Amino acid sequence: MRKLHLLLLPGLAAAAPAMGQDLNLGGPPGAPPVPVQISAAQGITWSQDAQTVTATGGAKAVRGDVTVTADELVAHYVKKPGASQPPPTGSGTVEGGLDQGNAQLTELDALGHVHIYTATDNAWGDKAVYSVEQQVLVLTGHDLKLTTPQNTVTARDSIEYYAADRKAIARGNALIVSQDGRSIAADVITGYFSNPAAGGAKPAAGASPQTDESGNLKRVEAIGHVVIKTRTDTVTGDKGVYLPPTGEARIGGNVHVIHGPNELAGSDALINMKTGIATLLAAPGGRVSGVILPGSGKPNE
Predict the structure, then answer these.
(1) Where are the domains of the chain?
(2) Burial class (CB in 10 A: 0-12, 13-18, 19+), 14
């Protein structure tokens, strides 16, 4: 098995969903660059003209606590000013040629059976593209899935991570399911995460200090065909905002609150996903309407 080390640019990072050890390929902003170790079962090929290093057959890239595996890994790089090109070895393969800091990674592509993971978090897809300049990681393909100790995220089209904004976006039949069974579904779901580097910040009510420090979800925005499910209710609407630390959510646009055989309709709804209490609101000049079956249990008001 051949191995190769790439030296990343300082500050390179991938935004991470709620995590104990996040899927961060670059380390904290401003931290010294850490080499990425690349290995492959079949071989590693270096192309001077294309400025790429390609690892094929059981390819693996490891940086700190984060590991990326795929059928093939392609590292795109640029030579540092004044640095000499590493010489090829063997039959077009490179062993350790980029481990002296002569090259800067610009993009890492993972192709086929992609798995990105730490000790606590996992992401799967058919293809992953990690842009250093934009600090964005995009997963595409079939069976897109992300798991953390708190949530499972799935999507049809893509799952994207943005380091600078500390957010993730799931597109196409997006779904977040929490450990206790609560869920949010929508066409597009955007999650924003607390900054673990913001020392001294107090966790939100209902959140443990460990949850806040690990970069947990602090806000979720859902757009298009929104469906929120609690232990007792299903709430649908056109758009919504959810605050995981408090369990509070607000759904707007053609809202329906379903509690067993009972259903209420209005323009907006306030929901506490921890208690299951939903408050339906009418539009200005409008009314709240619904159907309640006697003896079926009272819907939340």
Answers:
(1) 1-143, 150-301
(2) buried
Q: What is the mean pLDDT of residues 23-51?
A: 77
The residue type found at 176 is: I
The candidate with the shortest Cα–Cα distance to 86, out of 45, 36, 42, 48, is 48
Q: Which residues of 174-205 are buried (b: 16+ CB within 10 A; e: fewer)?
A: bbbbbeeebbbbbbbbbbebbebeeeeeebee
In angstroms, the CA 44 to CA 110 distance is 14
For the residues 152-170, what does the mean pLDDT come to?
Answer: 91
Cβ atoms < 10 Å from Cβ of 28: 12
DSSP, collapsed to helix, strand or coil, labels residue 204 as coil
58 within 8 A of 49, measured Cβ to Cβ? no
Report the relative pairing of strands 262-272 and 277-281 from DSSP bridges: antiparallel
| 197-212 pLDDT tens trace | 544 344 443 333 233 3
Question: Where in 12-121 does DSSP place strands (E)?
Answer: 35-40, 43-47, 52-63, 66-79, 103-117
Query: Does 10 score more than 50 pLDDT?
Result: no
The CATH number of 150-301 is: 2.60.450.10
Provide the whole-model pTM.
Answer: 0.76
Handedness of CA 201, 204, 209, 215 (dihedral sign): negative
Would you state the pLDDT for residue 81?
65
Decide: 61 and 38 in contact? Cβ < 8 Å.
Answer: yes
